[in-house]
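Quick one - inputs below.
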Amino acid sequence: MLKRINILRIVKDHFGTLTRLDSKSKRLYWKDLVLFIGLPSIIGALLAYKGFSIKPFIGILIAAVAIFGGFLFNLLAIIYSQIDKIRDDAKSEKNELKKLFVKEIHINISYSIVLSLLIIIVLIGCTTELPQFRYDWLVKKIALGVTYFLLGKFLLTLLMVLNRVYILLKKDSE
Amino acid sequence: MSKILLSTYVVKILDNNKNEQILSHFNGTDDFLRTFENYLNTIFKNIRAETDGSGTTSLHLTLESLPTVDMDNRRIYGYFSSGVSGDEYQIRDLETQDNLLDVETGHAAFRNLFFYMQISNGRNSGALILQKKAKYGIKTIFKKTINRYMREQGYQIYKVEVNNLLHGRVYKRMIEHGNLKKVELIKKRIPPTLEEYYENDGNPEDIPGTLRTSMSSGTSLPQAYRNLVDRLFRDPDLERVEINGIDEEFDELEFELELNGKKKTFYVANKQRIQPDVDVTSQLELNADGTPTTESLLTQCEELVQDIIEIRPPNA
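Output:
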């Protein structure tokens, strides 16, 4: 039943795009690990520790992420409509690299959409009032840290997608 | 003195259907040599400019002086003058550090580069030789400006192609009659990220420094090396170079051949990298200011046309 909504493979495939190209190992490239996991984790932990509240910006953030999410859906549709053409180009140019590049962009965009959905859910969650209990401050801090982490990751992934689409179009126009 | 390179090209005119035209009477009756002469006269009067790929700098092309037209031998030669503008910088005296000139975006530093075009009657290709200084060449701007000129003249369906020369027979002649001056074994690496790799057209990068193994000789390397590079070069499917006795695979083997003082570098794995440049530095006579004489450049071009272009494979 859950197979219909299984997005874990998108996450798994996305992390598969963060491996070293010049290595046979399927492990994450340490630089990507630092950039996409380490950096957002540190920033998220730091902001949550300092108690930097996200509540005043929740409305703006939801709107912004929703806009980006919608835009990414559109981009995915555009990439899909182009995928056949790119595949033909890749065949005629014997350019397997281009095929791989487009495939990875598709995975990265899908992952960004998943992230945007997750962020919206977490942000909406941030607006709810928790019942008071002994460790409620800790739960709030963790939730805040996770939100910052997801926002940071979303931003970085979006930059990666932008960079990749830019390279793809640039190479195509040359 | 820096190296003086002459690059050899084949010039063709194709119509919209990619059909090759006879250059001496393309478009029915027009002689491309005359069109080329008119193009040269036009750019002599008005400097042509083209923006480069980044859109920030412009390349300019004109002539140093009117070209020499020798219709009896169906050739034209002279000096292009080409420059780059779009940047602001200063020119200083290296000893005194005095500022000699503030270069503005509207200024361009021009270099004179020799050219030689020969188009025989009734042929679908002509020989073009362009001088190249170190990393500065003019093929791209020449191709853009000649095509723009053709369109302006109403030749809408024709396109001038300027192609690097095919090297089958050139190689054969140089390996059989020339000297093998240098062999280099190169190990390369694939960049770690797909972005870099794709942006580099899927070409691995050279590992700088230590993994370039070089063997060179003032005269010629022994016959064994010649046999080795010849065997490897003739293998059409070779992507990586494996050499008996060396416990490692290499990505590229570069070697330099010299024939009558003209040097050329060949690549085993990436044959498409072979540039049309021939090093003629040692064959030139120099003026008092250190520049090569026009006569010696002309002689080299004539020899190149004879040695290389005229012996090209029939389908080139």
